Input
Amino acid sequence: MTSIGSGGRATATDELVEALRAQARFYHDRHPFHTRMNQGRLSRRQIQGWVANRFYYQVNIPRKDAAILSNCPDIDVRRRWLRRIVDHDGTRSGDGGIEAWLCLGDAVGLTREELRDQRHVTPGVRSAVDDYVTFARTRPWVEAVASSLTELFAPDLMAERLAAFERFYPWIDGAGLAYFRARLEQAPRDAEHALEVVAEHCRSAEEQQRAVAALTFKCDVLWRMIDAIDQAYPE
Ligand code: AHQ
Output
């Protein structure tokens, strides 16, 4: 990857964005569990296991984003990054993405208590999610921003998943899918901001390589999670 100067800033940024987008080949949309989900081949128990385990990821996202805020010295970045926390926590009881995920739990037949008490969370999901939060707490804040860029690849998966749930899983009340509908708008907005921040702050070849490595790490986190769910809820 060329650093700034040889070929100019535009070229270096284009190459960085290209290298980041190339990580799509490692994204968890290609995992067999997601493929089976989107083909309507999952059982009720497998859907329930996935919802219960993903809840642990969802409740940790605001903590991950708060870790980035605590490490970030740039007020303009913090002002926009705050929105992510509000998207998940809401501003009052009954509001936000975590509440919407609890509604998804209701819709697939899980109690709010069994989601909140984490009884279904597998060790593999827990360790992958905890590694992601630790990454955000301990790595330079721009690398943690770069790790969120899996969201560049999320909208297509959300749209495919929504269509699959509506078509193949009629037993799931449509109200439970509100979370994914919200992500269709939030994910592109968040990814656009994160891409701007990474392009602005990763100028040297070494910084750009570390940003790509952060995104590769996050693809591994998501892959570890869905692997663990697939193993805990086999066909
Ligand atoms: O529901 C998801 C979510 O809130 C986030 C936040 C973001 C981040 O900061 O890392 N990533 C992310 C993702 C969510 N859903 C995943 C899915 O497949 O439903 C995708 C995941 C991502 O692409 O990182």
Summary: The mean pLDDT is 95.
